[in-house]
Amino acid sequence: xxxxxxxxxxxxxxxxxxxxxxxxxxxxxxxxxxxxxxxxxxxxxxxxxxxxxxxxxxxxxxxxxxxxxxxxxxxxxxxxxxxxxxxxxxxxxxxxxxxxxxxxxxxxxxxxxxxxxxxxxxxxxxxxxxxxxxxxxxxxxxxxxxxxxxxxxxxxxxxxxxxxxxxxxxxxxxxxxxxxxxxxxxxxxxxxxxxxxxxxxxxxxxxxxxxxxxxxxxxxxxxxxxxxxxxxxxxxxxxxxxxxxxxxxxxxxxxxxxxxxxxxxxxxxxxxxxxxxxxxxxxxxxxxxxxxxxxxxxxxxxxxxxxxxxxxxxxxxxxxxxxxxxxxxxxxxxxxxxxxxxxxxxxxxxxxxxxxxxxx
Length: 360
Ligand code: SAH
Ligand code: SF4
Prior knowledge:
The protein starts with a strand and ends with a helix. It has helices spanning 10-19, 25-36, 50-59, 139-152, 176-187, 207-214, 231-237, 240-243, 246-259, 278-291, 313-325, 346-359; strands at 3-4, 60-61, 66-71, 78-83, 89-96, 109-112, 116-118, 133-136, 161-166, 199-203, 221-225, 264-270, 294-299, 330-332. It is of the alpha/beta class. Helix 1 crosses helix 2 (25-36).
């Protein structure tokens, strides 16, 4: 079976090149084409002899992803829906570092990456979990999200993705080994060279895996999807809270924090009449203080299948004021891509509904 070229290590590629009777430097040329020059296909590799290109085609797949759909325009938030080899779909979102209302373009981008097809954790606000869990993404399917988007941006000049957020579809820490494999590649100088401090891993709260991540040598940033500051509120929307209640989660994050100083963000989706009360603001501020974490508020992006509503602007402002009164450093993430189904899993869900409609 052919293996993906994007995850072969320099050492193994070198062995392969030698066994093909080619000089050592060929492996560096191939890596350069795949990871740095952003070649769009084998035939673009102009310094690789055609007989080697033919062998490469026989033994390696160039990409594990096919672009099914793209939404958004250059310079703004763009969303990519990828078709995988088994006709499953995942999505990535490219977010400019500064999108202004006047549409100024930015040369720095964050890519939001998926790690699983579907999600087993079934949070009751999230489109990714609606149809359950299908499978883990392979390391190459994670790496190729970055490489494919870079290839599509090639006309813009230098590489554009400077930061990664592992916040797309799926629970990253439930696909731990494949994620670490992919991030080690994306981190490497010969690949995308994205520093660990520029990579944020978001988790719904898998306490044992957070402890494991704390022992990795890399200093990844950690984001915790909190969304409820007491067990009573959190367990209404996040079933994982029954397995790992807040006390356990907080202990694991404290352990992470003590080893990776200053790297934790608490993500908190504001949902009307569920988690936007002054009591929740106080409890949230207490957790943030204990973990020396900053709070990132996200106004809930409504999903048809769920009953929740986004709080009014006044209610959002009141929650922020309360948090600030209680001393928690807070940012509010205004949805940049409200119009393009920016919340996690929504584009895939829409695509599946459309495919179902075509089948009827
Ligand atoms: N499984 C991981 C990472 C993917 S989900 C986790 O739960 O952290 C990551 C984020 O998607 C959530 O924390 C939330 O910030 C965002 N999200 C999902 N559904 C959303 C919705 N309906 N509105 C706003 N944000 C949403
Ligand atoms: Fe899964 Fe994260 Fe969505 Fe929860 S919020 S269902 S853990 S992807």
